[in-house]
Amino acid sequence: MKTKFFNKSILAFFATFLLGLGYAGAQSPAGSSMQKMTFEELLILVLLIFSIAIALVVLGVITFAVLSIRQVVMKDLETRGVKVETLWGSMMKSLTRVVPVEKEADILLDHNYDGIRELDNHLPPWWVYMFYATIAFAGFYMFVYHVVELDSFPLQGKEYEVQMASAAAQIAEYKKTMGNSIDENTVKFVGKDKAAIANGKDIFEKNCVTCHGKNMEGGVGPNLTDEYWLHGGSINEIFKTIKQGVASKGMIAWEKKLRPGDIQDVSSYILTLQGTKPANAKEPQGEKYTPKK
Ligand code: HEC
Q1: Domain 194-288 belongs to what architecture?
Q2: Dist. CA 121–CA 129, nearest whole Å
């Protein structure tokens, strides 16, 4: 009866496991490793799991056999009056140095407080070893962090700096690749990014003031601070105008001279000056643009 149940539960376990595997494969989102698994890989995985299971069963059988033999041997020794000390027992003894109850009289201290007596027990060696370990660790810590100051064991302050630097490098890398993929459809208003606006201002002052004026009040080109636009006042339309230019009217196509990220920055900078009403502003041109909320 017992063995039958055992077989059934093992079968049930494997069936559940395989079902689960199939389910996970079917459920996993596109691109995950489960879905890309080839038949051979699945076969290898199943075989691997199967062999691990067999190994576990074998290990269980061996353990069971060893334990059974041990029990028989111990019983035999006991009947013959031999006292055996197990490995576990002797280890516990040396780690605790416990005084057996029969010998407690030896370590009983003299004083007696209304019948309450005290034993002079040893400090348990496991505890003492741990205490020594903390001392050793403190020495190691002190040496590594404060004496040699290894790079692989940085103090918190240094660790923070290193992480901030690596994050900054990652952001710079991201911006470099992102910057090149921006176009009039994906451009975003980055008015909250101080660095981007500073960059936009710089670009404007270097390239655009001759025609649009120092404060964008207009000159050869239109006033960029009012709500009236010839080619639309959304961030996407402004980006497109700057990128493609208006060749017939003297506005250069900046595509070749500025990186997409820079055009995004200068477009955003232009929008931050909306409604600033600079002196000598050129009269409105084009149609009124009201931003969509
Ligand atoms: C050589 C002169 C000149 C320079 C330099 C110049 N622009 Fe222009 N820009 C113009 C002219 C002229 C127009 C108007 C085009 C039209 O009438 O359609 C214009 C139009 C624009 C518009 C569209 C305005 C609207 O009402 O739709 C924007 C935005 C703009 N420029 C941004 C810039 C930026 C940014 C720079 C610098 C990177 C720049 N311009 C440099 C002459 C210039």
Answers
A1: Orthogonal Bundle (1.10)
A2: 16
